[in-house]
Amino acid sequence: MKLYDSKLAPNPRRVRIFMAEKGISCDQVQIDIVKGENLTAEFLAINPRGVLPTLVLDNGTVLDESVAICRYFEEIQPEPPMMGSDPISKAQVEARQRHMELDGLTGAAEVFRNSFPGFADRGLPGNIGTTPAIPALVERGKARLTNFYTNLNVYLKTNEFVAGENFSIADITALCAVDFGAGAARVPFEEKHTELQRWHATVSSRPSSQA
Amino acid sequence: MKLYDSKLAPNPRRVRIFMAEKGISCDQVQIDIVKGENLTAEFLAINPRGVLPTLVLDNGTVLDESVAICRYFEEIQPEPPMMGSDPISKAQVEARQRHMELDGLTGAAEVFRNSFPGFADRGLPGNIGTTPAIPALVERGKARLTNFYTNLNVYLKTNEFVAGENFSIADITALCAVDFGAGAARVPFEEKHTELQRWHATVSSRPSSQA
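Above: the input entities. Below: the structure tokens describing the complete assembly.
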């Protein structure tokens, strides 16, 4: 089993943290996205969409999408449950994980992809041809991130974690969104987001956050 | 059990088709997004994010996200399986469903949201404040849709359905993306997309497509 990974990008980090929480490890190959190594013929032969992370199983099966890779690990090793444990909690975790992705990670990606000079012609990730950066998405992305922090802070006033009482994949996506938002996108959460600070310190103290 | 629905929008349609395939029905309430009924205090009290579909269970639990609602139905009624049936197929269906969403439905939404005059100040869905339309997203969305049709056509040359041999949630998302792309976004697939035509005719002939 081999994971094609990028230490700089948020989506591969989601998988690395998920695996660390499950105690699963495998060979890792670093692919430099900024240099365009994800768009070489060699990598496109493995994943034609040209995105990371990509997991190749020992039988040759290619799983080319972050949450799908997590799903595979959840299925082959259900403990500890990271995607819910009964019909309602599974649906609630999925809903919250998708909120974190759509509201948070997408906003951070909009800011970074459309402002980083190295991606001036790569406004969208992967093997999709030339996609010029759209400056208006930088401002919209910043507004989405600010909105995301505010809403998450409200939620965390009455919930310990991002999808209720238990640490889950929704926390992983949120952590990657918050750290990518503060780092690459340069929109950190603020002092007034006290519950978000409390949660961020808690989840960042888990060893998996360093994976 | 009550489904807050919009006959005009692609995401509620995903849930209606999924339910029809499972033979599940429930009360439905139509919410007019164009008139902004999803942003009234009454609806925001049910779903603070102000998006559709939203499912309210008999015990009061609110599931506010399309794929999460499908997940709930898959868990309470596994037959027929629509999200895979073993660890690898579950991961592959999830990956393909997410490709259809990211590559297809997102492109169609970019075109429609940023060109429809009624959404000039609502470039993003839901309760997120004023988000001006971004004209550059219309062109980018059209290019994404064209790319999506071409890639899906290639995939369907060697696969009967969108995630391999079996009809799944990935076909539902793709059908909603293609029909929303051709309808609201006015970017239909072309005659040269012969495999896409074959697949579209097949899935459109299923009674669920009319749900």
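Note for the figure: The CA atoms of residues 115 and 178 of chain A lie 18 Å apart.
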